[in-house]
Amino acid sequence: MILVSGASGTTGSEVAELLVQGGERVRVMSRRAVEIPGAEAVRADFTDPASLAAALEGVSAVYLVTAPPKPVIDHDVALVEAAKAAGVRRIVKLGAISGADPGTWHARAERPTRDSGLEWTILRPCTFASNMLAYAPMVKAAVPLPNPTGDGAVGVIDPRDIAAVAVEALTDDRHVGREYTLTGPELLTFPRQAEILQDVLGTGIATEAASAEQMRAVMVRSGMDPDGIAESLAGMARLAEGRYAVVTGTVARILGRAPIGFADWAEAHRHVFR
Fold first, then answer.
1. Tens digit of each residue's pLDDT (9 = 90 or more) over 54-110
2. What is the distance between the alpha carbons of residues 4 and 8, in angstroms, rounded to a whole number?
3. Strands, DSSP E only, in 193-269?
4. Is the dihedral of CA 130, 134, 139, 144 positive or negative?
5. Distances in whole angstroms, Cα of residue 95 to Cα of each of 65, 119, 214
6. Could you write out the DSSP letters of every residue in 106-122?
7. The whole model's pTM is what?
8. Contact at 8 Å (CB) between 189 and 149?
């Protein structure tokens, strides 16, 4: 049995569906009801030890995704401790490229998995192509999209590729003890992503520079935790500085095919922006 946490999220649902298609026994965990055909669903919360114990009963491997409102590692610690008590053998932890930067929340959140004594794999993807979905209302309204990262480029990755790599790590012993930086096939700035989306949609999409203070104000209005805001702004600054301007061949090496390009992602999601 493989437990998929964050099963209602961007990668969790994809991981669960791929595992089911591959004939694996799958249990999906979420705080709210989630239905994935072929998978057993369980409601559980990282802050409820009893629910974690029930979710992990009979489980051999876990796909671990945490996104607490405040950037602390408590959820990772809770899951890892419950997994050890339940006899889980393997954890595949979804992090981010910033996990390679000491002191970041993602770096701290990796430690419980790495120090667990269980088999582990750490996935560090770059910017998700799906992050562009947040701008769909602005695209529809023909409002310029705010760009806080300037000409900073990153190897934007399709979440479907992240999920496919996660499935390999969950089911293949060759990935135990490995840390993988996952990227798409090319470096893209935010304005270039907008240009590609514009070409796919056949409609004009403009971008405009956004300062850190402007982005802070937006996040404050959304109710984000102050520490979360600080982490997000620091990540934007690192991207703008070119710290994440890297393309790896990891996805192609593990999956035996090229990673999905941003244009293909945009084509598959064009209906969202219409």
1. 999 999 999 999 999 999 999 999 999 999 999 999 999 999 999 999 999 999 999
2. 10
3. 207-209
4. negative
5. 8, 16, 27
6. HHHHHHHHHTSSSEEEE
7. 0.96
8. yes
